[in-house]
Each structure stands twice: as structure tokens, then as C-alpha cells.
Amino acid sequence: MSNHERRSSGWQLEQSAPEAYERYLVPPIFAPWADQLIETGDVCEGDRVLDVACGTGIVARRAASRVGTSGSVVGLDINEGMIAVAEETAAAIQPSIEWRQGDATDLPFSDERFDVVCCQQALQFFDDPVAVVEEIQRVLTPGGNVALTVWRPLDYQPAYVVLAEALERHAGDEAGTMMRSPFPVWDGEDLRTLVQEAGFDDVSVTIEIGSVRYPSVEEFVRREAASSPLAEPIAAVDRELRDELIQAVEDALYTYVDDEGIVSPMESYAVTADR
Ligand SMILES: C[S@@+](CC[C@H](N)C(=O)[O-])C[C@H]1O[C@@H](n2cnc3c(N)ncnc32)[C@H](O)[C@@H]1O
Fold it and tell me: Is 213 in contact with 262 (CB distance < 8 Å)?
């Protein structure tokens, strides 16, 4: 099948955005970072762990395998669809994970309930991130750890700069803004200040450099689009425009194309503090 025929077959949405997120984004992006996050948060056997804004639950699942049956894990997210996929994906995991739908700015837990609170790539989406970190502090036991990750700005994410620009040009401003939204303009000091404002004293911030790989540029664009809140409007884009979009991304990212598809660096801040 030629590239053109493949592209012209269209992007049918066979699944919901949360299902696509779990299938397409978790394995190449969020799973490797989740392993690192629970390492940073020093999750140990017997710990009571909260995964704030858990999405489809990758951090909670990784934490469950660490804490064993003497510990416990709760995952909380505001999005019902994400929680539904989290529940289904973790059905066979022991110890079983408790899933809660709720708002991170008003955590439905008593004070000092957890030993470790993790929050992977979500602080940038909260209307009031300081209020969320205050809540995290409230539910942490004295001596407990918080571990957060937040992507570095778009300039440090070569594949996503190009994808955001191409989406803006070919699918509209809203699509471009959506693809930029995971990458806030915060630097490490902004993050340290934010976490200190919420009441943590000794805050550590490190820069972590990873990568993301997809089997082709087309799959990179298709999978990212299918997993986003704008999946439907992007899938509805005219085929010719979609081919132009993929071509623009291919042209701009040719230096990252190899025999196995496309690979690009991704950089994140990791923030930790003790209560
Ligand atoms: C990029 S996803 C990260 C999900 C997950 N931490 C992971 O690593 O796969 C951001 C998540 O933040 C959640 N979220 C946004 N605002 C929230 C809020 N106020 N309270 C709880 N969750 C929220 C979204 O529903 C989404 O699942």
C-alpha cells in the first residue's frame, strides 16, 4: 500500500479519547515516566499512595506493584471517561486500586491519609495549581512525599512544536492551542515557587530527559489526535488537508526519522518535597 493510499483511508475514530489515550499515549510516553515518578516519590512496600489526576491510571498501577498487599493505592481524576478506562485496565491488579472521580482542588480524603502523593503531567491543567498542591499537603502524612512531573516548555519538545504548528495551520487555532496546552511556560524556579507557596519548604526540582517513539510520522499525528479532547473535529478534517498536515510534520521532523519510525526528545521537570 502506498503512503498516499494509506493516508486516504481516513482516520475513523474506533474508540473514545480515553481509550485511545490508554492505547496510544500511555505505552510510549506515560508508562516510562510513571516508573521514574514512583522512583522519585520513593514509593515503598506498605505505602498508602494517592495518584492525583490519574487519567487512565498508569502511575497508580505501577505504584500498586510496589506497595504490595500491605499498602494501598487510590487514583483520582475529574474525567469520568478516564476513570472508567482506569478501572477496566486495572481490573486484575492486586492489591486492587480504589478509583475516585473528583476534583483535585477539593480532595475527598481526610487529613494525613497518604504516605506518598504522585501527580504526573496534570499540574499544568489545573485552574488553581497552588490550591491543588495545598490539598496534596493536607492529605499527606507528616514526613510523606509528594512527587510531581510537568513537561518543560514547548521549545524543549521538538516533535510537539512541529505538531502544534501544523495542527494550527491545517486544523485550526483550537487544535494548535490544545496541542500546546500540556507544555506550560513555567521554568524550574516557577515550579519550585508554586510548590513552596502551597506550604512545602524543601523542594527539589530536576530536569529529566526522555524520548518518544512512534512507528511513523503519520501514526504520531493520528495517535496524538485520536487521544486528544479534539479527536472528533481533527478526524473530520478534509483528507487533502490531513495529507498536507502529515507532509508538513514529515518535512519538519525529517532529522528525527529513522529505520523504526520517528523518535524525538521529551523533557520534563520532576518536583519532589517532603511534608
Ligand atoms: C495529561 S493527563 C495525565 C493523566 C495521568 N496522570 C497520566 O500520567 O497518564 C491530565 C489529567 O488531568 C486530569 N484533570 C484535569 N483537571 C483536573 C482536576 N481539577 N481534578 C482532577 N483531575 C484533573 C484530566 O482529566 C486528565 O486525566
Answer: yes
**178 and 165 Cβ atoms separated by less than 8 Å:** no
Question: What is the mean pLDDT of the segment spanning 40-48?
Answer: 97
Quick one: average pLDDT of 151-179?
Answer: 93
Ligand 1 within 6 A of 109 CB? no
Q: How many residues does the chain have?
A: 275
Q: Is the pLDDT of residue 7 over 70?
A: no
Query: What DSSP character marks residue 125?
Result: G
All domains of the chain, ordered by start, with CATH?
Answer: 13-274 (3.40.50.150)
Please report how the helices 173-180 and 158-171 are oriented relative to each other, as an axis angle in degrees rounded to 10: 160
pLDDT digits (tens, 9 = 90+) for 126-145: 999 999 999 999 999 999 99
3-state SS, 201-235, equals: CCEEEEEEEEEEEECCHHHHHHHHHHCCCCHHHHH
Taking the C-alpha atoms of residue 188 and residue 266, their distance in angstroms, rounded to an integer, is: 16
pLDDT averaged over the chain? 92
Q: What 8-state DSSP symbol labels residue 153?
A: P
Contact 140, 114 (CB under 8 A): yes
pLDDT tens per residue across span 72-88: 999 999 999 999 999 99
Rounded to two decimals, the pTM is: 0.93
12 falls in which pLDDT band (50, 70, 90)? Answer: low
Query: Which of 79, 183, 268 maximizes ligand 1 atoms within 8 Å of its Cβ, making it the mutation to test the pocket?
Result: 79
Mean pLDDT of 154-163: 96
Pocket mutation for ligand 1, best pick of 121, 128, 130, 181 (most atoms within 8 Å of C-beta): 121
Helices (H), the chain: 3-8, 17-20, 31-40, 58-67, 80-89, 129-139, 158-171, 173-180, 188-197, 217-226, 231-235, 239-252
